[in-house]
Amino acid sequence: MSQSDYITCRELIDFISDYLESRLPAEQLREFERHLAVCPSCVNYLDAYRKTIVLGRAALEPSDDSARGSAPEGLLKAIKATRRNMVS
Is 81 a member of any domain? Predict the structure, then answer.
C-alpha cells in the first residue's frame, strides 16, 4: 500500500474535531484511524490537541471557592486608574 492510499496529514487535521466528537462517518473514521496507524507525527498532534482541550477547560474552572469573584488588588487598582485616565 503506498502513502497515497492514506489521507494526508492536512486532511486529518481538518477532521480532528469531528473525530474527537465521534461525528465522522464510518468510511472517514476508518481512513482517519489508518492514517494514525502509520503517522507518528499525527498521533503526537492528536495527543497535544486532546491535552490542549483538557487544559483549556481546566483554565476556565475556578480552582477553589475562595477564588471566585476575587481579583488581585493590583489589577483592580490598574483598571480603576485606566478608567480615570480615559474619562479625563
Answer: no
